[in-house]
Amino acid sequence: MMYLCSSISELFLSINETAARLRLAATEKAEAEKILQIKRAEGDAESKYLAGLGIARQRQAIVDGLRDSVLAFSENVPGTSAKDVMDMVLVTQYFDTKKEIGASSKSSSVFIHHGPGAVRDIAAQIRDGQLQASLV
């Protein structure tokens, strides 16, 4: 009988130790998952930050290129103003955009008025939007 009680005590002790180890393992697993989630969020934030830097640099390069183009065109073609050159650039970009949309097999159909008056209106809308944005 004494041997049986001793075995039962050892069995309960073993069960309690196993339960304690399982609780500790669950706590450590939850902590590891928390760390992984934090690291994923930090990585996502860093990725978005770097993407923002890339976009900012791209826009700066576009602005620099436009400025150089406007200056070069104005110098080489007497009587043209920066506005004339920008209007021409906007029209060129408009047609480049239409070409890209048409060239992509995965794009939806986009119908845009493309007569001279419509292009002038689009350019005016872009300029008006830029003026309004600069006032804010």
From TrEMBL:
PANTHER family: HYPERSENSITIVE-INDUCED RESPONSE PROTEIN 2 (PTHR43327:SF31), STOMATIN-LIKE PROTEIN 2, MITOCHONDRIAL (PTHR43327). It comes from Miscanthus lutarioriparius. The lineage of its organism: Eukaryota, Viridiplantae, Streptophyta, Embryophyta, Tracheophyta. It comes from the Eukaryota. GO terms for cellular component: mitochondrion. This is Uncharacterized protein.
